[in-house]
Design a protein that fits this description.
With 206 residues, the chain is mainly alpha-helical. The protein has helices at 16-19, 23-36, 73-83, 97-104, 120-132, 136-145, 159-163, 168-178, 188-205; strands at 14-15, 43-46, 50-53, 57-58. The chain has a two-stranded antiparallel sheet. A two-stranded antiparallel sheet has the order 2-3.
Length: 206
């Protein structure tokens, strides 16, 4: 997730979790924690320092990604190697395009749930839905299916809504067909497993 332009008014180093106080950062953090659950790791991408844990002490700074003096791609690659990000099965990037693109430069298969949003309002809406979802990663993957540059048919966004309107015999077929439009970063087997579970639940309720 991205850092924040708004920072705590302090002159001494404080944990990153306390330093970044911007509302968009806070919303990204809520969504990131929901996706990570109890087994994943949440990292901040700082324009000045690169990848950080929320407990890392930082002093206030003023810098945006891409500005002179911001973290370089080779620095991010070195940090990613040390953190083992290349071996993470599913990497999710939340934030503005400059920050997500920086992650994609080292992991092209990164999941980008906010791509295709028309503005900050739609980004906030998606983040709020992810943070409140019963299956946050599943919803993030659904959003990423229709990301910019990856055309998806209407019955792919989101598929769960269209499943409820289809006869039982068509629902599984839609799930398998939709994998043709999934970007490389989407775990297709995991999504199909979730669809199968959803189908069983809906069938039990009918």
């Amino acid at each position: 997730m991205p850092c924040s332009a708004a920072k705590l008014g302090t002159t001494i180093p404080v944990p990153a979790a306390d330093l970044y106080v911007g509302p968009f950062h806070r919303l990204c953090r809520r969504a990131a924690h929901a996706i990570a659950g109890s087994v994943g790791t949440v990292l901040v991408l700082s324009a000045a320092h690169g990848f950080l844990t929320l407990g890392e002490p930082l002093a206030p700074y003023e810098l945006r990604m891409g500005e002179p003096g911001s973290v370089r791609p080779d620095q991010l690659r070195d940090q990613a190697a040390r953190l083992g990000l290349h071996h993470v099965a599913q990497l999710v990037a939340l934030g503005g395009r400059a920050y997500v693109d920086a992650v994609a430069a080292i992991r092209p298969d990164v999941l980008r749930p906010l791509d295709g949003c028309r503005g900050i309002g739609q980004q906030r809406a998606r983040l709020s839905r992810i943070a409140a979802a019963e299956q946050p990663l599943f919803l993030a993957q659904e959003f990423a299916v229709g990301r910019t540059g990856t055309p998806a048919p209407p019955n792919c966004r989101p598929l769960t809504d269209h499943f409820r309107m289809r006869p039982w015999g068509q629902r599984s077929a839609i799930g398998w067909q939709a994998t043709r439009w999934m970007p490389p970063g989407v775990n297709q087997r995991w999504i199909l497993c979730r669809w199968s579970q959803q189908l069983s639940q809906w069938r039990a309720r009918s």
